[in-house]
Amino acid sequence: MKTYFLNLALILFTLSTLQAQDYVWEKLETEPYRGKQDDIDFINKDIGWYINGHGKIFNTKDGGITWTKQLEQQGTFFRTVEFIDENVGFAGTVGTDYFPNVTDTIPLYGTKDGGKTWKPINYSGPYVKGLCAMDVVKEEYVNHGKLDYKYHIYAVGRVGSPANFMVSHDSGETWESKSMNEECKMLFDIKMFNKNIGFACAASSEDITKANAVILKTTDGGETWKKVYQSIRPYELTWKASFPSEKVGYVTIQSYNPDPNVKQQRVAKTIDGGETWTEINLVEDHQARQFGVGFITENHGYVGTVHSGYETRDGGETWTPVDMGMACNKIKIYNNDEHIYGYAIGVNVLKLNTSK
C-alpha cells in the first residue's frame, strides 16, 4: 500500500511539473546582420543551418552554441533553406530585380555533403525567378522488400512576383517547375501535410496597393490549387503558416497600408483542416507588421513582428508581448518523440528552451 501511494505521489508530482513547464526564447550568439534574416532549419535538436541575404550559409552541430560559416557568395540573396538529413539540403534564392545588389539568377542550390559545397539545381519547366519557402514530406515505401523512405520537396516564390511552384518527388534528384500566375501573383510560404494535401500563402496582385491576402489549398501535390481564403482589404498578403495539427492552422496576414489610422493586425486561423478560415485580432498597432508564426500546440504559439513578438496560450483569443528580437521571420517548432524544441530567425537567431 505504501508503494502504491509513493507511485501515485510521483505521478502527481510529474504531472504538476509538466504543467508548470514554460518556454523562453534565448538569443544565440551569431554573426551580426543588419536587417531581416529569412530562414533556419534543423534536422534534430543539434544540427541545423541558417541563411541570409548576404549570400551566407551557417551550420551548427551543437544546438546553436557555435556556428560555422559554410558559404559566402556575393550577389546571392538566400531566402529559404531545407535539409532532409545531415548531408542533403537545398537553399533557395529570392532572385534579381527586387533587392539591390542581387545579381544571382539561380533560384535553387543543393548540397550532398552537409553544406560544405553547393551546386545549382537543374529543373524542367518554366523559368523560376526566385523562391521564398520550401517544405519537405517524408514518405515510407517498400524498396526491394524492405521499408525505406523517400522525400517529396516543395518550393514556392516569390515576393514581388512572379508566382512559381517547384517540386521534387525523388529526394531532390530531379525537379519540375510550374507557373502559378493564374492562381495568384506572389507566393511566400508552403506547408504540406503529405505528398498531396497542403497550403500556400499568397497575394492576389503584384501591385501591393491592390493586393489581398490569399491562402491556396492543393489536394493533388500542387497540380491544382483552390482559393480557401482571401482578405477584403488592400495592401495585404499572407506571409507564413504554422499547423500544430492537421485541423488547426495559423497564417500571418501582413498589412502594408500607409495610413497610420489602420492599426489592427490580424491572423488567419482554421479549425477544420484549412477548408475555412477566420480572422482573429493580434494587436492594434500600425507598426506591428507580422512575419513568422509557430505553434507548439493548437493553442500555444508565437508570432514575430517588426519590433518584437507575441505569444498566445488560448488559440489567439489573447496575445502577450514576448521578446523575439526584431523582424522574426521564420519560427520552426519541432516535436520529435515527444521532445519539443524550436528555433527562430530574424535580425537575431533564437532557440526555444524550457524554463521552470
Description of the structure:
The chain has 356 residues and is mainly beta. It has one domain: Methylamine Dehydrogenase, Chain H (7 Propeller). It has one helix and 28 strands. It has a four-stranded antiparallel beta sheet with strand order 1-28-27-26, with no helix packed on it. A hairpin with a 6-residue loop joins strand 18 (236-242) and strand 19. It is globular. Residues 1-20 have low confidence and may be disordered.
H and E order: HEEEEEEEEEEEEEEEEEEEEEEEEEEEE
DSSP helix fraction: under 10%
Largest sheet, described in full? 4 strands, antiparallel
Number of domains: 1
Hey, roughly how much beta strand do the residues contain?
over 45%
How many helical elements?
Answer: 1
CATH topology-level name = Methylamine Dehydrogenase, Chain H
- Determine the structural class based on helices, strands and strand pairing: mainly beta
CATH superfamily: YVTN repeat-like/Quinoprotein amine dehydrogenase
First CA to last CA: what distance?
Answer: 32 Å
Number of strands: 28
The side-by-side strand order for the widest beta sheet comes to 1-28-27-26
Give the helices and strands, then pairings.
Elements: H1 2-20, E1 22-27, E2 39-42, E3 48-51, E4 56-60, E5 68-72, E6 78-83, E7 89-93, E8 108-111, E9 119-120, E10 133-143, E11 146-157, E12 164-168, E13 176-179, E14 186-192, E15 198-203, E16 213-218, E17 226-230, E18 236-242, E19 249-255, E20 264-270, E21 278-284, E22 290-295, E23 301-305, E24 309-312, E25 320-322, E26 330-336, E27 339-345, E28 349-355
Antiparallel strand pairs: 1-28, 2-3, 3-4, 4-5, 6-7, 7-8, 8-9, 10-11, 11-12, 12-13, 14-15, 15-16, 16-17, 18-19, 19-20, 20-21, 22-23, 23-24, 24-25, 26-27, 27-28
